[in-house]
Amino acid sequence: MVLSTDRLIDELWGEHPPTTAVKTLQGYVSRLRRALGDDVVQTRGRGYSISLLGGQLDVDRFERLVAHGRAARDAGEAATAARRLGEALALWRGPPLSDLA
């Protein structure tokens, strides 16, 4: 799926984008590329796409660790359950997507 520059600007700033919206968006994309890798965020015409494999997002790791923690708990392995659930909680950093406001 490709999101156009116009759509992204509309989603970020609504009806009144700053005059620097295109340049600012390019800066955001550049930061995403540094964080995720050049091969993950790709330019497609006048838009962008993101290609992620399963497990690349922290939410995937969180869900996997929670599932392992629950399985260990159900198997009576309290120490392993505590360790896995603790690792999952360590990934949590406030409300989801709060840094995108």
What does this structure look like?
The chain has helices at 5-13, 21-36, 58-74, 78-91, and strands at residues 3-4, 41-44, 47-50. It is mainly α. Strands 1-3-2 form a three-stranded antiparallel sheet. The longest helix has 17 residues, at 58-74.
Overview in brief:
This protein is mostly helical. It has four helices and three strands, in the order βααββαα.
Task: Give the SSE layout.
Layout: E1 3-4, H1 5-13, H2 21-36, E2 41-44, E3 47-50, H3 58-74, H4 78-91
Antiparallel strand pairs: 1-3, 2-3
Helix pairs in contact: 3-4
Distinctive features:
three-stranded antiparallel beta sheet, 3 strands, 4 helices, 10% strand, 101 residues, 2 domains, mainly alpha, Arc Repressor Mutant, subunit A
